Amino acid sequence: MPAAIKIEGLNKIFRVGFWGRRFEAVKDLDFEVGAGELFGFLGPNGAGKTTTIKMIMGLLYPTRGQAWILGKNSRDVAIRARVGYLPESPYFYDHLKGAEFLDFYGKLFAIPAPKRRKKIGELLELVGITRAADLPLRKYSKGMLQRIGLAQALINDPELIVLDEPMTGLDPVGRREIRDIILKLKQEGKTVFFSTHILPDVEMICDRIAILNQGRLVNIGPLGSLLSPRVKYYEISFSGLAGEKLKDLSAWVSNILQDGALTRARVEKEDDKDRIISWILKEKGRVDSVLSHRESLEEYFLGQVDINNADKRG
Amino acid sequence: MWRISADLRCFSVDLLLNNYMHKLLAIAHNTFKETIRDRILYNILIFSILLIAFSHFLIALDIGGDEKIVVDLSLACISIFGVLIAIFIGIGLVYKEIEKRTIYTILSKPVSRPVFLLGKYLGLLMTLLVNVAIMTAVMYAVLAFTRRGIDLSILKAVFLIYIELMLITAISFFFSSFTTPTMAAIFSLSFFIIGHVTETLEVLGQKSGVASVKYLTSGIYHVLPDLNYFNIRAEIVHSLPVTIKQIWFSAMYGVFYIAIFYFLAIMIFSRKDFK
C-alpha cells in the first residue's frame, strides 16, 4: 500500500515586495504519512504548515521537489476524488444554505442525487448542525462554518483527510466534538493529517507528529518516542505543618511554595520524594497529593523551536 | 509548459470520462445563482428597461415618426448594458473566488482548473442570456404597443449581440486572470471600444501615408477582433437584407476569438499559485 502522503525534497520560494525579494517558506521537506495514521503537523505561526498543505492539495506549485498523495502526484486532479480537505479559516459561498452548499460539493464529485441526499443528512448530523441545514451560510457562526467545512471535506467519503487548523475558532465543547470525529475517522481506517497549534489536542489523539519551524522539519516521530517518559519532577502537596517545622524541610528541599494552609514541595529524585512523604507523616502532617510531572508536548515543542531558532542565530 | 500540458491532459481525461459535465454544470449553476443576485446587474437591468420603455415616447419626437427608433435604441441598450454586465461582473468572478478563498475548496476537489474557469464562464453567460432575454422581451412589448405584428428578424441582431457579449466576457476573464479587477475593467472596456473602431483605424492608417502608422493600424486590425462583425443594427433597423450565411460567419468568427481568449486565460490561470 503506498504512503497516504509522501513529501520529497519539497521547497517553496515566494517572491515578496516590489523588488521580488526571495522568501523561502518551505525548505527541503521530506516525510511520509502512512495509510491509516493520525498525523499531527505542528509548528508556530508562519512555520510553513499551510504552504505545505497547499502544495499537497495542488493549490500551490512547489519550487522544487514533489508531493505524492495515495501514490499519485499531487498535481493529478483525479486523485482528489479520494481526498478531503478543510482549509484554514474557510470561507464559503455565503448565499447558499447549509444543505445546498454540501449538495454543490457533492456534485463536484459527480455523486448521484439520492446518495448525495443521504450523505448530506449523515454529515450534518455528524458535525452537529442538522438544525442549520436551511440557514444561509452568511448567518453561520465561526464555529458552525468550521463544522460545515469539515462536512464538505467528508462528502466524498475520502481515504485521506487533510485538515488545516480544524480546531481554530471552536469553543472547548466544539473542539472535543471535532476531536471525536477525527478519532472516529481513524477508527474507520482513514488517514487524517492535520495541522494545529493547539497542543493538548495533538497529545490526546495523534499517532505521530512532525514539528515544522521556519520552513524546516525539526523533528518527526511517534509522540511516545519524542517525549521523554522519564519523570521530570514530583510535586508533593501537604498541610498541617507550619513555621519551624517547614524550616527544617527547607534545609534539604530547595523548592518549597506556601499557598495558604497548603505547602507544595518539588523534588526531582524519587528517593527525595519518599523521604519527604515519610517526614510529613512522621511530623503528623497530612499528604494531600503527589503528582509526577513528565515532559509535556508543549514543553517539548517550545524546547525544539527554541533550539532550532538558536541554531539559526548561531 | 509542463503544468499547462498536465492541466490540459486532465481536462481531456475529464472529457473522456464524461463526468466533467456534472462538475461543469454544478459550477455554472452556482455561478448563475451567485451572479443573478448581484446588485450591479439589477441597477443596469432596471435602467435599460426604463430606457427601452421610454423609447416609445421618442417616436413622437422622431421625424419619421415610426418604430425604428424603438428598435435602434433597444438594440443599443441590449448591447451596451450587456457589455457593462459582462465586464463588471466578469472581472470580479474569479477574483472574488481567490480573494474570498472559496477557490481552495473547489480546486481541491477533482475539478481541473480549465473546467472551473469554463464553469464560471458558462454561469455568467446564463445570467447574460436571461438579461438579454428580458431586455428583448421589453423591446417587443414596446413594439407591440406601437404597431401590430412581430418582426422576428430583430432576433438576428440580438443573436449577434449575444455572441459579442460572449466574446467580451471571455476577454474580461482573460484580463482578470492576471490583473486586478480595476485594471481588467479598464483593459476590457478599451478592448470593446478599440474592437469597434479597428476598421476605421485601418482605413485612416492607409490614408495617412506614413508606413509605420499603416503597419500599426493594419496590425491592430488583423490581430484584435473586429467587433463590427456583430453589429447589424443598422441593417435590421432599416430592413436591409442580412443573410444567414453572414450571421453564421460572424458567429464562427466570435467563437474563434472566444476559444483563443479562453485558452490564454487557462494558460495563465493554470500556472497560478493560490497563496
Given the structure, what is the number of helices of chain B?
Answer: 11
CATH superfamily of the largest domain in chain A: P-loop containing nucleotide triphosphate hydrolases
Number of strands of chain A: 14
Distance between the termini of chain A: 42 Å
Specify Rg of chain B, calculated over alpha carbons.
20 Å
Tell me the series of helices and strands of chain B, N- to C-terminal. Answer: HHHHHHHHHHH
What CATH first level of the largest domain in chain A would be assigned?
Alpha Beta
Low-confidence stretches of chain A: none
Name the strands of the widest sheet of chain A in spatial order.
6-7-8-3-9-10
Main sheet characteristics of chain A? 6 strands, mixed
CATH architecture annotation name of the largest domain in chain A: 3-Layer(aba) Sandwich
Work out the radius of gyration of chain A: 25 Å
Summarize the structure.
Chain A is an alpha/beta fold. Chain A contains ten helices and 14 strands. Chain A is globular.
